[in-house]
Structure formats: structure tokens, C-alpha cells
Write a structure and sequence with these properties.
By secondary structure, this protein is mainly alpha-helical. The chain is built from 4 helices and 2 strands. The protein has one domain: Winged helix-like DNA-binding domain superfamily/Winged helix DNA-binding domain (Arc Repressor Mutant, subunit A). A hairpin with a 5-residue loop joins strand 1 and strand 2. The protein is elongated, with a radius of gyration of 20 Å.
Length: 105
């Protein structure tokens, strides 16, 4: 049986890229560590550059680094994920409390 694929949201992909670029990363590293195709990576890099969440550093080897705004985005995203996981845990606990007891003979 094949493993179930988990699709990432737009926010998750953006956060992954910013996380990889925290201390500066080249495009190839972001592509491989972020598990992205070249075309999808380029789309996200353009978007994150336009929103000021990362910046390109031009040197002999072009790299991308998270901006202060990008770091704040990442902090907010991580906080959102923490509360989302808490909500999921509470939902499962509530669902278990409504589970029917086993049949009594």
C-alpha cells in the first residue's frame, strides 16, 4: 500500500523557504532542502522577494537571506502552528469523550 502524501499549504512552503534562508542560502540548497521543483521555487522566491520576506544578496554567488520581516513572518507562522496543534489535540480529546461505549452483553 502506498504511503499517504501530505500536501503543504502555501504558508507552509513560504515558511520552509524562509527557514532555510535564515542565514543565507543559494537557490539549489533551498530547492533541495525545501523539496521543490525549480519552477515552483522560482515562483515562491519571486513572491517572497516582492513581499520583502527575503532578499537576494548579489556576490560572486547569489544567495537569499531572510529579512527582519521574514523572520517575523516565521515567528508568527510557528506560533500559528503551535496553536493549531493544540486545537487538534483538544478536538481529538473531545471526539474521544463522545465515543460510544462498547456494547454491553
Amino acid at each position: 500500500m502506498a504511503a499517504k502524501r501530505s500536501y503543504r499549504s502555501r504558508l507552509q512552503i513560504a515558511a520552509d523557504i524562509i527557514e532555510i534562508a535564515l542565514n543565507g542560502s543559494r537557490k539549489t540548497r533551498i530547492m533541495y532542502h525545501g523539496n521543490l521543483s525549480f519552477d515552483l521555487l522560482q515562483k515562491y522566491l519571486d513572491m517572497l522577494l516582492n513581499f520583502g520576506l527575503i532578499e537576494a544578496q548579489n556576490g560572486d554567488r547569489r544567495s537569499y537571506i531572510a529579512t527582519t520581516k521574514g523572520r517575523e513572518f516565521l515567528d508568527d507562522f510557528n506560533e500559528l502552528m503551535k496553536y493549531s496543534q493544540l486545537a487538534d489535540t483538544k478536538r481529538r480529546e473531545l471526539e474521544r469523550s463522545l465515543a460510544l461505549p462498547p456494547e454491553i452483553p
